């Protein structure tokens, strides 16, 4: 297959954005949980929410960028 389909490019963009966003969200969530002294097991919930939220946003934007870029051929 010489060229990837548009759907494959968008899927790859969403996957990469989700991975990068999840990594950034985990680091930032851990930092914030320690900084604001979140008590006990609430730290795990806070870090999880930050990780998932960041992964969703990064994935959405990278997928949208891939969709916009999909129509262009260079």
Automatic annotation (TrEMBL):
<dbReference type="GO" id="GO:0005744">
    <property type="term" value="C:TIM23 mitochondrial import inner membrane translocase complex"/>
</dbReference>
<feature type="transmembrane region" description="Helical">
    <location>
        <begin position="12"/>
        <end position="31"/>
    </location>
</feature>
<protein>
    <recommendedName>
        <fullName>Reactive oxygen species modulator 1</fullName>
    </recommendedName>
</protein>
<keyword id="KW-0472">Membrane</keyword>
<keyword id="KW-0812">Transmembrane</keyword>
<comment type="similarity">
    <text>Belongs to the MGR2 family.</text>
</comment>
<dbReference type="GO" id="GO:0030150">
    <property type="term" value="P:protein import into mitochondrial matrix"/>
</dbReference>
<dbReference type="Pfam" id="PF10247">
    <property type="entry name" value="Romo1"/>
</dbReference>
<dbReference type="InterPro" id="IPR018450">
    <property type="entry name" value="Romo1/Mgr2"/>
</dbReference>
<feature type="transmembrane region" description="Helical">
    <location>
        <begin position="51"/>
        <end position="70"/>
    </location>
</feature>
<dbReference type="GO" id="GO:0045039">
    <property type="term" value="P:protein insertion into mitochondrial inner membrane"/>
</dbReference>
<keyword id="KW-1133">Transmembrane helix</keyword>
């Amino acid at each position: 297959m010489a060229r990837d389909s548009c759907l494959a490019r968008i899927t790859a963009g969403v996957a990469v954005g989700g991975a990068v966003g999840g990594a950034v969200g985990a680091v930032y969530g851990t930092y914030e949980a320690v900084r604001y002294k979140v008590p006990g097991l609430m730290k795990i919930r806070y870090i999880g929410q930050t990780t998932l939220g960041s992964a969703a946003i990064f994935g959405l934007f990278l997928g949208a960028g891939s969709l916009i870029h999909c129509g262009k051929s260079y």
